[in-house]
Each structure stands twice: as C-alpha cells, then as structure tokens.
Specification:
This protein has about 120 residues and is an all-alpha fold. It folds into two domains: about 40 residues; about 80 residues, no CATH class. The chain contains five helices and no strands. The protein is elongated.
Length: about 120
C-alpha cells in the first residue's frame, strides 16, 4: 500500500518510524566515530608494532596530508632528529614511558615519510 493511500495519522506514524530508525543509526555511527577517535588519539606505548601505524595515522589526521606532501627530504631529516632527541632526553631522564612514546612517534614519522616518497 502506498503512503498516499494511508490516512494522515498512519502516514505520520510511518514517517516517525523512519525518523526514529535514522536517529538510532546516527547515534550508532556517532558512538563508533567517538571510539575510533579515542583509538586514534590515544598513544600506544607498550606495543611498538601496534603503536607505529596508529601514531602514523594520528600524525596524518592531526597535521593533514597536505602538510606531509609539502615536506622535502631535509624537513623529514630535521623532524626525525628532533623526535629522536626527545626520545633520548626522556630516556636519559629516566622517563621511560615518554621515551617509548617518542620512539614510536619517530618511527611513525619514518612510516609517513616512506609513504610520501613511495607515492612520488
């Protein structure tokens, strides 16, 4: 039966049901997006192999792909030295969790550089 054949009350009810279903789907998608955002923006410092791709994605999300594309080889060189120095300073100070984080951020930058140079 077409909606036009239904009475006004039934038509409104059918539309309300569709709206409710869409609102439920939007709520599910918002929850999934928040969970993914939390995953992307929470540093992983215990598992190097898990942390590097997450951090690389975080860097691309935070700084944008155009930021990556504008870097030349010496920009990458400077960035890697800067990040590695932060790791060394943290390790020297005994702040091992921070040192591990900076090691992962350095490796993630290398991953992003590799991705950039491979795309050229």
């Amino acid at each position: 039966m077409e909606t036009a054949e239904l009475g006004p009350a039934m038509e409104a009810s059918a539309q309300r049901s569709k709206i409710d279903a869409l609102e439920e789907e939007v709520a599910k998608l918002e929850k999934s997006l928040a969970e993914l955002g939390a995953l992307l923006n929470t540093p992983e410092t215990e598992d190097f192999d898990k942390g590097v791709p997450l951090e690389a994605a975080h860097q691309r999300y935070r700084w944008g792909d155009d930021h990556v594309e504008r870097k030349d080889a010496f920009d990458w060189f400077w960035l890697l030295g800067f990040l590695a120095q932060k790791a060394a300073a943290s390790a020297q100070a005994g702040d091992i969790p921070k040192a591990k984080h900076h090691i992962i951020t350095t490796a993630a930058a290398l991953r992003n550089w590799f991705g950039r140079i491979s795309a050229q």
